[in-house]
Every structure is written in structure tokens, then in C-alpha cells.
Amino acid sequence: MIGHITLDAADESYALGGTATYAAVTAARLGLQVRVLTACCSVGYDRLVNLVSADIHRIHSPVTTSFSNVYVNGHRQQRVSSVADPLTPELLPPEWNDSDVVHIGPVAREVDVAYIAAFENVVLGVTPQGWLR
Q: Is the pTM of the predicted complex or chain greater than 0.70?
């Protein structure tokens, strides 16, 4: 899994979120070996470590990508509050090139599109929402 974990603010509390988080939790619950490449500060990292058993390669960032969520008449209004450091292909641990499945899940344009061509002979999944925001 390549992408930022997030802290989503709602009602004066924070929930762990983001495609990287949800995909890692789902894969781990299915019994798969999970690897996560993300950038965040210690708050987001500590929450992820407590949530899922995974090999997490964290790029230290002064902030964790955060969203502010306000609900008005049943509709969510979302704003990006902070964005952690970008993820570029040279940050991937070399031993992870042997992965069978790679899921790229940007949430705030943080994942370099060069990752799409960085892998050979893998099942490659992309959740492009963060490139489209």
C-alpha cells in the first residue's frame, strides 16, 4: 500500500482514515502480509501501528495529512487541513519490489504518478481519488 494515512477531524475528535489505512486493515483481516509506505508525524503512525499488523515504512513528516469534515443537512463538506511530505519512488524500500500486489492510493496528490511504472509483474491497483481532487 502506497499513500498517506490521514487524520480526519469531525466533532472535535480525530479518526484514522485514508485509502492506505482502509486497504491495509482490509488486507490484514483477509490474512495477507501487509506493507505500507506512508508519510506522517508520530500521531498518525502510532494510531496505525495500534490498528493493524503491518510492515510500515514511515517517512517522517512534520504533519500527518488531515481533513476537516463538517456535516450540513446530511452532506459532508471536506477540507484538506494539512498534507504530509510527498511519496516518490526512491522512498520505496528496495526489498518491496518483490511484492505480488501493489495498491496506490493517494488522497491529496502526495503519491508521485511515477509509481505506476515502478513495478513489474505485479497486480497493480490504483485508487485515484487523491489525484483527482
A: yes
Whether 76 and 69 have beta carbons less than 8 Å apart is answered as: yes
pLDDT over 80 at 11, yes or no: no
Alpha-carbon dihedral of residues 52, 95, 98, 1, nearest 10 degrees?
30
The residue among 74, 33, 29 whose CA lies nearest residue 56 is 33
What order of strands is seen across the sheet that includes strand 13-17? 13-17, 6-10, 65-72, 75-82
Compute φ and ψ for 64, nearest 5 degrees. Answer: -100, 140
Cell representation of residue 55: 510492515
pLDDT of residue 131: 94
Helix (H, G, I), strand (E, B) or coil at 112: coil
